[in-house]
Amino acid sequence: MSKAITNGDSEDDIVTVNFKTTESFLEAIDATWRGRGFNSRSEFIRYTLRDAVEFPTFDRDELIALLAAEEDIREDGTMSAGEVRDRFGTGDE
User: Fold this and answer.
1) Residues of 42-57 as b/e, b for ≥16 C-beta within 10 angstroms?
2) Is 46 in contact with 6 (CB distance < 8 Å)?
3) Closest to 81 in 3D by CA, of 93, 91, 71
C-alpha cells in the first residue's frame, strides 16, 4: 500500500515534479479541478495521483483479459446467457 502523504505530517521532503502536456489537456485539467472544488491544480494532481497509486483501476493481467474479451467480441466468440446455462448446466433448477 502506498505511503503517499501530502498533508505535511510526513518527514519526507516535498519535491517539485514537472511534466509536459498539451494546452488543451491543461485546460481540461483546470476546468476539472475548479469544477470539483479543489483549491489548486497541484492539490488536484496530488489527489489524482495518490488515488491512482493506492487504488489502481487495472493491473496488467486485468488489462490483458479485457483486451482478450474485446477480441472475442470482435470475432463473435461470445455466447449468449442461454448457451452458457446449457453448456455449464446452470439452469433454473
Assistant:
1) eebebeeeeeeeeeee
2) yes
3) 91
Tell me the pLDDT of the chain (93 aa) as tens digits.
344 455 555 678 989 999 999 999 999 999 999 999 999 999 999 999 999 898 877 778 888 888 888 888 888 777 788 887 888 887 665
Question: DSSP assignment of the chain, as one string?
Answer: ------SS-SSSPP--------HHHHHHHHHHHHHTT-S-HHHHHHHHHHHHHHS-S--HHHHHHHHHHHHHHHTT----HHHHHHHHT----
Distance (Å, rounded) from C-alpha 75 to C-alpha 67?
12
Q: Give pTM, 2 decimals.
A: 0.51
Q: What is the predicted pLDDT for the residue at 7?
A: 53
Q: How many CB atoms lie within 10 A of CB 68?
A: 11
Cell of 62: 486485468
